[in-house]
Amino acid sequence: MKNHLVVALAYDRLCTFEFGCTVELFALERPELGVDWYRFAVCASEPGPVRAAGGITVAAPYRLAMLDRADTIVIPGWRDADEPPPEP
Q: What dotted CATH number matches 4-74?
């Protein structure tokens, strides 16, 4: 049985707190628990590195097509409530 794939979307003006919480919950290895519940990936909504809050740059290894493979998609604190996220 394959582990559940969680994919987080990195985007221009990424909310770093929400992104960090996503990484903490789904990407950090927990060998002391003896289980691997999740596989984790980050995809970018735009080509190239994306700018995040606080002057951080995120270089995501995947593009939006990775969302099609995800069991769960996390959009950490989208940048604007009036702007819809991009379609995969």
A: 3.40.50.880
